[in-house]
C-alpha cells in the first residue's frame, strides 16, 4: 500500500471513528424532561350551601360598607373596593360622589333576605361570576336626607327590591366580593 493510500485510509478510518462517536452521541437518549405539573385549584366551596353562605356573607359586608359610606354623605367612597369588584366599585363610587355633591346622607340600615342560589360555576374564568344569587333588599328602615333634614325619598319607593347579584372570587382570600347587582323584574324573589 502506498504511503498516500495509507494516509487516505487512515483519514477515512479516523473519519468513520469520529462519525461513529458522534453518531452514538446523537442517538443516545436525551435526559428525561420534567413532566409539567398541573396546577390544581381546589374548589372554593364544598357544596352549594357553602357557596350560598359565602354569597350571603359577601353581600352583608358590601351592604354594611355601603350603608356606612352613605350615612357619612358619600365620604371616603373607596372603602367599597374592599367588598366589590373593580368595575362594580367604580360604579358605586360614582353614585357616592353624586350623593356627596347633592349634600345627601342616609339614616337607618338596609337589610336583605330570601337569598336563593341561581348558579355556582367553580370553573369561571379568573373567578369572575363564580356565584349568582337572588335576594331581596329591604330599605324600609332607611331614609335619604338633604342637609336640611328633609327626606329625598319618594313615597312611591318600594321597601323591598329584588336583585340578581353576581359574585366574583376575591383576589386576596378564598371569599367572594360583589361584582354586579341588577334589579330582578321577573318576580318570585321578595
From TrEMBL:
It comes from Cryobacterium frigoriphilum. Residues 1-28 form the signal peptide. It comes from the Bacteria. The keyword Signal applies. This is Uncharacterized protein. Keywords: Signal. PROSITE patterns: PROKAR_LIPOPROTEIN (PS51257).
